[in-house]
Amino acid sequence: SGKDLQFVQKLVKLIEDNRVPAPCPIEQRWTARSTSPMSPAFSTKPDEVFSWVGVIMYLPPDEAQRQAVTEQFRAYGRLMQPLLDEFGAQVHWAKLEAPAQDTDEDKARYASEVTALQKRVAAKYPVKEFNEFRDALDPRRILSNDLIETIFGK
């Protein structure tokens, strides 16, 4: 349909207009559909093709610089969300970042961002079934972490 290229063109414009220090080139690749319900490329249509766009920032070894890059990356993600929504795109669930809550003033924004994240994940993935498998196969949550618990619930 050409939406894959339109997405990247709009992403480049967003990066340029907002002076986001995004590395170049922007990675874009295509894959066939997946039959795994937890895949962002899940489809029952055998001929469906999916486009993947790598949205990254490289972390330097200096801790202060790492923190600055992490903050820029979070801002980049928030800036991109309307574009993701427009194209029905989503971040791979295993690459999601938890919203930051650095101060007490961040509590309302944090709660709002967590709720929005959970809704986006639940709209795309079979969260109930995933949690049922987690309960059966990993009842003590040995293979979990705070991010997974935040996204999929405890």
Strand order within the widest sheet?
1-2
Report the major sheet.
2 strands, antiparallel
The gyration radius over C-alpha positions equals: 17 Å
Unreliably modeled segments: none
Helix content range of the residues, please? Answer: 40-55%
Spell out the helices and strands N to C: HEEHHHH
Shape: globular
Give the end-to-end Cα distance, rounded to a whole number of Å: 39 Å
| Mean pLDDT figure | 90
Strand content: 5-15%
**Helix segment count?**
5
Protein name: D-arabinono-1,4-lactone oxidase C-terminal domain-containing protein
GO molecular function: D-arabinono-1,4-lactone oxidase activity
Keywords: Oxidoreductase
InterPro entries: ALO_C, FAD_lactone_oxidase-like
Describe this entry's structure for a reader.
Residues 7-149 form the D-arabinono-1,4-lactone oxidase C-terminal domain. One of its GO terms (cellular component) is membrane. Pfam families: ALO (PF04030). This protein has 154 residues and is mainly α. Helices cover 49% and strands 8% of the residues. The chain has helices at residues 3-17, 63-87, 107-124, 127-137, 146-152; strands spanning 27-32, 49-54. Strands 1-2 form a two-stranded antiparallel sheet. The longest helix is centred in the middle third of the chain and has 25 residues, at 63-87. It is globular. It starts with a helix and ends with a helix.
